[in-house]
Amino acid sequence: xxYVNSIEIALxxxxxxxxxxxxAHLPKWLRGLVLHEPVSGVHxxxxxxxxxVLRSGRREMECxxxxxxxxxxxxxxxxxxxxxxxEREISGPxxxxxxxxxxxxxxxxxxxWESESEYRFTGFSGLLMRLVxxxxxxxFHKQSQQHMxxxxxxxxxxxxxxxxxx
Length: 166
Hints:
The chain has helices spanning about 15-20, 25-30, 125-155, 160-165; strands at about 1-10, 35-40, 50-55, 60-70, 85-90, 95-105, 110-120.
């Protein structure tokens, strides 16, 4: 399953890249994040592997995230017109995914964030599970778009998704 989401953010590309790359900000915009801790490497840097726990309703899912691309490595003084790339692999029980993010200048103070997601599911056996797999793409696409909208609200307005839950 593959899909692409995009959103424009009313901030310069360099600022958006810095906010996205800083793991300290994740709980402010990534709904359901319980834990995001490095197992090896430096948080947010290329090659880092992290343990991630997400909660949706009463269900918790634990997975492993590995940062496979961060280009440029230094997010200060990014050359005008260049594209910022972030890529990560995520694996957990019954699933594997890769997310490829691109940040480009959409205007003087505006950034276009395009995110390409690819999911593979394992362990789907039986008719019911195959049916569920067919119905999932829309839900995954919608959830990814919600994360991007939450990031936009955090980056532009300082909104924190944790405050909505209270």
